[in-house]
């Protein structure tokens, strides 16, 4: 078997996290980890590229796109290799993570893993079951991309067109779905989310806006189904509670998750549906410390 090609791992972050260290020790000969930050004031610059194979890339302030999109553009342009892995700084990367991603590419071509979002505040905990069934399960069954763990090669996409559009939008993985077909492997990564009520509210606003601009038919379907299920939950609470709880334990089983929060599926519905419509009505949202107004798929204003 021939040796695998070297890999460029793109990891946007402003500080050196456990994930950075975990990926660093997995680098093989020729691999590189690009830690992409905003500028010289970010805490991550204290690392001063002291780790072999690690490069710090300053993306600068975003103009007309999100900070994450801006970072990915800078990383793609700076990366030296054809094989690219995108990842995030907020979850555990086990010792075989990079090797497994590369092996998956050799077997399947472009591959993505699946996130499961674990709440760090009461509201995010309550919403866990619906995030699992409405988000994680959809990614898994639909072979959709999670930008926190995806591998592909430059030749798999129209890179010039992709980067041009990425400079003018918010969602990196939402746009990549339009350029790349992947196989979603059956590995779920635990991603902590929330921590405050504000974060818990802003996150579904951003996720809903991504669906609105990239997959309007999907968000319309989610709204319709959510209203129908909510009506059933109001009219027949006991059967609905039983069905929703059992169904979400089944969802967790498919995702390989052992979490008690499946029992919150029924009350979660009464929080999720109003939040869904609130998210559609909102005109701005906060992500990574910046406030954005997303007026069209390629019409983004950074307003704070």
From TrEMBL:
GO terms for cellular component: membrane. The keyword Nucleotide-binding does not apply. It is found in: Membrane. Its main location: membrane. InterPro entries: Ceramide_glucosylTrfase (IPR025993), Nucleotide-diphossugar_trans (IPR029044). GO terms for molecular function: ceramide glucosyltransferase activity. It holds the Pfam family Glyco_transf_21. It is a multi-pass membrane protein. The chain crosses the membrane at residues 219-251, 263-281. Keywords: Glycosyltransferase, Membrane, Transferase, Transmembrane, Transmembrane helix. Pathway: Sphingolipid metabolism; Lipid metabolism; sphingolipid metabolism. PANTHER family: CERAMIDE GLUCOSYLTRANSFERASE. This is Glycosyltransferase.
